[in-house]
Design a protein that fits this description.
The complex is a heterodimer.
Chain A lengths: L3 H8 L9 H34 L2 E4 L4 E4 L3 H8 L1 H32 L6 H9 L6 H11 L5 H8 L11 H29 L3 H9 L4 H12 L1 H15 L4 H6 L11 H11 L3 H29 L5
Antiparallel strand pairs in A: 1-2
Helix pairs in contact in A: 2-14, 3-14, 4-8, 4-11, 11-14, 13-14
Chain B lengths: L1 H27 L20 H9 L2 H32 L5 H9 L10 H10 L7 H9 L2 H14 L3 H9 L4 H12 L1 H17 L2 H6 L8 H5 L11 H21 L1 H14 L1
Helix pairs in contact in B: 1-13, 2-13, 3-6, 3-7, 3-10, 7-10, 8-9, 10-14
The chains are: A mainly alpha, B mainly alpha.
C-alpha cells in the first residue's frame, strides 16, 4: 500500500495534486470495507431478496415445479395449524431460555464476585461447557436423559421417580431449554462478572451507611449500573434462541408430536425434508421479521431502563 | 465463617450439571455398551476398543482434519476482514459511511437458516456442493462475520486519536497507521474474535448437513451423529468416544489459557 502511494502521486503531480490526503483516505476507507460489503451483498442481502421472491412462488424441488402464485404462500401461513403451534413452541422456548439463562448467569456472577478463594477454578468449570462441541454436548445429554439414564439415576438416589424426559410434551421442552442454558450460560456469566467488577465499591459503602440491606443494594445499585450489559446479553440471547437448531435436531427432532418444533426446525422440515422451498422461504421471511422486530423493540426500550445510554 | 461454607456448598452444588456431563462422556466412552446406563461413575472394566471402532467405522481422522482446517481458515479470514472493516468504520471518514455500516449490520439480524436455501442454490449452480467452499466463504464474508466487525469497530473507536496523529506526523499513510499502530494494539479484541469465530465454525451443524453428502467430506458435528450399527441403532459408546475426542483437546487448551481466554472475552463485552 505505502509503495503505491508515491507512484500514484508522481503520475498525477501535474494535475494539481488530485490525490489529496482526504481523497486518498476515502479510497482506503472504501477498500477496507469492500470485502465485508461485497460479502454482505452476495451472502446476505441478495439471498434475502431471493428469499422474498421465492416466497411468492410455488417451488417443489422434487416435482421440479416453479410457478408464481403471489400471496398464496402467505395465505397458507395464516391457515397453517402446525405453524401456529410452532410459534407457540418458539415463544415458550425463547422466554424460558432468556429468563433462565440471564438469571442463572447473574446468580453465578454474583457468587463468583464474592471475595472467596478458588473462584477462578469455579469460573473455569462453569465456563467449560461453552467449549464442548455442541453436538457432542447434546448427544451426551440425550443419553443422560433416557428413562434409565444418569439424570433419573440421580433423582432415584433421592427417591424421586424421574419421567421419560424427551417423550413428554412439557418435559421435552424443559430438557431442551436446560441443556441449552447449561451449555451457554458461561458466556453471559463472564460478561456479567466483568460488569459487576466495574461497579465502584464506594457506592455500596455509602448505601450500607444509609442502612440499605443487601437486596436493596442489589436492586438499586447493581442492577441499574450493569443495565447496559443486561441489554446486550438479552439481545444476544433472544436472537440466539431463535437460531437453536442442532440441539433440537439431535435431542428431540421437534417431538414428541410438535411440542419442540420451533420455527427454525419447522423451516428446515418444510424446505429440506418436504422439499417445499417456496413455503420454506415464506417461513424464512416470517423468521426474519420476528428477529428484526425483537431487536428493534429492545433497542427502543433501552432508553427507558438502561442507565446513561446516550 | 458459616457464610463461607454456605457459599462453597452452593457453588459445588451448582457445578454438578456443568461438570458431570463431561465426566460422564469421558468415562462412559471406555465402558462396554452394556454398562452405559449403569449408575457407576467409573467403568467396571476399561475398554479402549471403542476408540479403534471410531476410526474403523468412519474416516474420522479425515473428518477431524476437515473441521480443524476449515475452522482455522475461517478464523484467520474473519480476523482479516473484520479488522479492516472495523477499523475503516471506526476511524476513517468517507462519504456514505453510516449507510454502508447499517447495510453490513443487517447481517446480525439474519439467522443463517433464513438464507440457506438461496445460498444452497448459488453453490449448487457453481458446482460447489459437497465441497468445503460454502463452509469457508460464507462465514468469512457473510453474516457470521458481522459480529466480529462490530467487536473490532467498538475497539477501534475507543483508541485515543493522539496515537494516530503522531504516526501521521511521522509520515505513515493510512494503511501504515492501521498495520503498524492500530492492529498491534487490537490484540485483545482480535483474540476474542478468534475465539468466537473458531467455536462458531467448529460447531456448525446445519450448513454441513445441507451442503455435504459423502463421509470423507463430513465435519465433526455431522460425523458424530453417524455412528450406527447395521440396523441403524446408535452405537452409544462409540459416539461417546468420538465426542470425547472432539471435546477434550479444546478443553485442555482452554484450561491452560483460561485467564487470557475469559478476560479477553469479558473485556470485549464491556466495550461492546
Amino acid at each position: 500500500m505505502t509503495a503505491v502511494v508515491p507512484a500514484v502521486r508522481a503520475v498525477v503531480r501535474d494535475r494539481a495534486a488530485f490525490w489529496t490526503y482526504r481523497r486518498r483516505d476515502n479510497l482506503v476507507g472504501y477498500l477496507f470495507v469492500a470485502p465485508a460489503l461485497l460479502g454482505s451483498l452476495a451472502f446476505v442481502l441478495i439471498p434475502l431478496g431471493l428469499v422474498a421472491w421465492y416466497s411468492l412462488n410455488e417451488w417443489n424441488v422434487l416435482g421440479g415445479t416453479f410457478e408464481f402464485i403471489g400471496a398464496e404462500n402467505y395465505q397458507q401461513l395464516l391457515n397453517d395449524e402446525k405453524l401456529r403451534s410452532s410459534l407457540v413452541a418458539t415463544a415458550w422456548f425463547a422466554a424460558g431460555l432468556v429468563v433462565l439463562n440471564l438469571s442463572l448467569a447473574l446468580l453465578l456472577a454474583v457468587l463468583l464476585n464474592q471475595k472467596l478463594r478458588g473462584t477462578t477454578l469455579f469460573r473455569t468449570l462453569f465456563f467449560s461447557p461453552v467449549l464442548v462441541s455442541l453436538v457432542a454436548w447434546t448427544l451426551v445429554w440425550q443419553l443422560m436423559l433416557q428413562p434409565e439414564g444418569s439424570v433419573n439415576g440421580l433423582l432415584g438416589f433421592f427417591g424421586v421417580d424421574g419421567p421419560n424426559w424427551l417423550r413428554g410434551d412439557t418435559t421435552a421442552m424443559v430438557s431442551v431449554i436446560v441443556v441449552q442454558v447449561i451449555k451457554n450460560v458461561g458466556l453471559n456469566m463472564v460478561l456479567f462478572l466483568a460488569a459487576l467488577q466495574g461497579v465502584p465499591a464506594p457506592l455500596y459503602e455509602a448505601a450500607k451507611i444509609d442502612g440499605a440491606g443487601a437486596w436493596t443494594r442489589f436492586r438499586r445499585i447493581t442492577i441499574p449500573l450493569i443495565s447496559p450489559t443486561i441489554l446486550l446479553t438479552s439481545i444476544i440471547t433472544i436472537v440466539g434462541s431463535l437460531q437453536v437448531f442442532a440441539q433440537i435436531a439431535v435431542l428431540t427432532q421437534g417431538g414428541p408430536g410438535t411440542s419442540t418444533t420451533v420455527l427454525i426446525y419447522y423451516l428446515y422440515q418444510q424446505a429440506f425434508q418436504f422439499h417445499h422451498f417456496g413455503y420454506g422461504a415464506t417461513i424464512s421471511v416470517l423468521l426474519f421479521v420476528i428477529v428484526a422486530a425483537l431487536t428493534l423493540l429492545q433497542w427502543r426500550m433501552r432508553r427507558k431502563w438502561v442507565l446513561h445510554e446516550s | 465463617m458459616s457464610r463461607k461454607v454456605l457459599l462453597y456448598g452452593l457453588l459445588c452444588l451448582l457445578c454438578v450439571p456443568f461438570v458431570f456431563p463431561t465426566w460422564w462422556m469421558v468415562t462412559s466412552s471406555m465402558k462396554p455398551i452394556s454398562e452405559i446406563f449403569s449408575e457407576s461413575l467409573l467403568p467396571s472394566q476399561w475398554t479402549f476398543s471403542t476408540y479403534e471402532q471410531v476410526f474403523r467405522m468412519q474416516p474420522f481422522g479425515q473428518q477431524y482434519w476437515n473441521s480443524l482446517y476449515i475452522a482455522v481458515i475461517v478464523t484467520v479470514g474473519t480476523m482479516a476482514v473484520a479488522a479492516l472493516a472495523g477499523y475503516a468504520f471506526a476511524r476513517i471518514r468517507f462519504p456514505g459511511q453510516n449507510v454502508l455500516f447499517v447495510v453490513v449490520l443487517t447481517g446480525l439480524l439474519i439467522p443463517s437458516e433464513v438464507t440457506i436455501v438461496p445460498l444452497f442454490q448459488l453453490f449448487q449452480s457453481l458446482g460447489l456442493t459437497n465441497t468445503h467452499w460454502p463452509l469457508i466463504i460464507v462465514p468469512i464474508f457473510g453474516a457470521p462475520c458481522v459480529l466480529a466487525i462490530f467487536i473490532m469497530r467498538q475497539f477501534f473507536i475507543a483508541l485515543p486519536p493522539e496515537l494516530e496523529e503522531a504516526a501521521r506526523m511521522d509520515g505513515l499513510g493510512r494503511a501504515g497507521i492501521f498495520y503498524r499502530v492500530a492492529l498491534p494494539l487490537a490484540r485483545p479484541a482480535l483474540g476474542a474474535v478468534a475465539i468466537f469465530t473458531f467455536l462458531h465454525s467448529w460447531n456448525l451443524y446445519l450448513e454441513p448437513i445441507v451442503y455435504l453428502s459423502t463421509p470423507d467430506m463430513f465435519t465433526l458435528p455431522q460425523a458424530l451423529t453417524q455412528f450406527v450399527d447395521i440396523y441403524g441403532g446408535p452405537m452409544w459408546n462409540v459416539q461417546l468416544a468420538a465426542a470425547t475426542m472432539t471435546a477434550v483437546p479444546i478443553l485442555i487448551v482452554f484450561v491452560l489459557a483460561q485467564r487470557q481466554f475469559i478476560e479477553g472475552l469479558a473485556h470485549t463485552g464491556v466495550k461492546g
